[in-house]
Design the sequence.
């Protein structure tokens, strides 16, 4: 029987999102792919350092290290993987050698990869059944979002995640245009804060339409329910909303039968310092200002979704 990824949380990730390859990328941008390939091959024995999304990936893969799986293996039963991470990269196959060598050095259980040598990699998200796509290429991310996949452009200048919570995958989400649609954000952009507040007060018991990252939140919820004694997931909603607009956000999550562990209704305050205290392995937001504020303290990514990302 052919292998499949059914029922797994699948993360597709580019080389630059997983590893710090910014120096090599500058060579690519200033020269051509031949010089880049030679540099990567010359550095084959030099493992790349962890990148922005490394902590998130490493912790998610730890959900596969379940002691109960050992007994299944001993009895000859198939081992059920809960998380699959696939390298999905514009790199060429030669440069992919170094990527996989770095994967092995850092002891990441990543065995699958697609290398397209400059061509669009996002078309492979469908056969991968990806729940998340992380890339340093904003055009690829926009295309993935257009196709209906949760996707974010990693802020490669982000501070790397701390290791104070080794047994928790900690993920923070913005609300409007990320977990939820940008319906309310459109009201705010067109008519201002008072109209936005009134709109959300009038519709407090009406769930917000789905945003691009709802499927990821559902997949994380499913992974948490599957459980393992070694790992858990802790989520936070970090939004510019404030009372009374908070109610509709909470009621929407209740309607989805999904709980978040923390909720921050900041009323326009900068999110960075609050995220510094939460210490997520990754934060997703649709507004570049919030992403840049967050990136000073935690790994962050831009979700190019909603009215804030439409061209004027």
Sequence:
């Amino acid at each position: 029987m052919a292998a499949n990824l059914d029922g797994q949380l699948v993360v597709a990730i580019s080389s630059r999102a997983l590893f710090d390859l910014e120096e090599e990328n500058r060579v690519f941008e200033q020269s051509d792919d031949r010089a880049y390939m030679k540099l990567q091959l010359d550095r084959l024995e030099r493992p790349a350092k962890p990148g922005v999304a490394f902590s998130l990936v490493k912790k998610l893969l730890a959900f596969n290290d379940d002691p109960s799986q050992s007994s299944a293996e001993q009895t000859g039963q198939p081992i059920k993987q809960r998380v699959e991470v696939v390298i999905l990269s514009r790199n060429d196959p030669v440069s992919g050698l170094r990527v996989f060598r770095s994967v092995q050095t850092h002891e990441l259980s990543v065995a699958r990869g697609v290398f397209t040598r400059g061509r669009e990699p996002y078309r492979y998200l469908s056969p991968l059944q990806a729940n998340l796509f992380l890339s340093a290429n904003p055009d690829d991310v926009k295309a993935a979002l257009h196709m209906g996949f949760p996707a974010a452009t990693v802020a490669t200048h982000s501070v790397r995640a701390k290791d104070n919570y080794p047994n928790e995958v900690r993920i923070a989400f913005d609300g409007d245009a990320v977990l939820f649609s940008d319906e309310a954000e459109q009201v705010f952009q067109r008519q201002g804060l008072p109209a936005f507040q009134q709109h959300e007060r009038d519709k407090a018991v009406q769930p917000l339409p789905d945003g691009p990252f709802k499927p990821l939140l559902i997949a994380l919820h499913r992974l948490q329910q599957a459980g393992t004694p070694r790992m858990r997931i802790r989520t936070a909603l970090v939004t510019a909303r404030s009372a009374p607009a908070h109610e509709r956000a909470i009621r929407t999550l209740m309607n989805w039968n999904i709980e978040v562990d923390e909720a921050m209704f900041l009323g326009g305050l900068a999110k960075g310092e609050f995220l510094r205290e939460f210490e997520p392995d990754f934060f997703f937001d649709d507004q570049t200002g919030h992403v840049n504020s967050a990136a000073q303290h935690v790994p962050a990514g831009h979700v190019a979704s909603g009215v804030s990302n439409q061209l004027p």
Summary: The longest strand covers residues 232-239. The mean pLDDT is 91. The chain is about 40% helix and 15% strand.
